[in-house]
Amino acid sequence: MAKQLYEKFDAGQVTDDMLAEASLLFNENYGIWGKDAAILGPFAKPGSRVRLSKDRLRGQYLPDGAACSYVQVTVDGHLAGNAFACRWLFSGKTVCWITQLVVKYDFRERGLASGLLNQLREDDDDIYSLISSHPAACMAAAKVFGNSINLVNLDFI
Ligand SMILES: CC(C)(COP(=O)(O)OP(=O)(O)OC[C@H]1O[C@@H](n2cnc3c(N)ncnc32)[C@H](O)[C@@H]1OP(=O)(O)O)[C@@H](O)C(=O)NCCC(=O)NCCS
Prior knowledge:
This protein is of the alpha+beta class. Helix content is about 25%, strand content about 30%. A 5-stranded mixed sheet has the order 1-2-3-4-5. The site of coenzyme A has 21 residues, from strand 4, helix 3 and helix 4.
């Protein structure tokens, strides 16, 4: 049976090698720019893969001074998925924002996204956020952070 290992890191513990691996995972598995993406800029070429460099991951997903976390899951020693999150206070509540969630194509639909989000839960959190048009990401977040997608707090949003 395959060995699954979840590991959680604070931003300061994430090495450049880990980010290089995370960048590769993202570039090969996140998604493809749609036909109207060109309005975003020349980098968004319809039909080509959405990409993120390790430097951009560091600068935008683990910015200095922010309380950010990185979670990865390996299957038999190979990176199969990961998630980034940042926390801050808003109106006296601790918000945990999932800024990225990716699972390798070959390892989807076996609960890894839910497992990654589960690792990010902390007792002091009041609010969890994830913006995604991917139904599986929304399903995973609703299951891990709440009871049902029907109970999302729209007033807070
Ligand atoms: C979204 C993504 C992370 C889901 O990863 P995953 O490991 O396959 O998700 P899980 O196996 O944990 O499934 C989560 C839920 O979605 C459901 N689901 C997953 N894939 C599904 C599919 N293709 N069709 C129907 N339901 C699906 C699962 O059944 C599960 O629901 P359940 O707990 O009620 O059974 C993965 O598809 C991915 O990397 N997509 C590209 C990147 C992306 O869009 N990320 C989200 C934006 S940040």
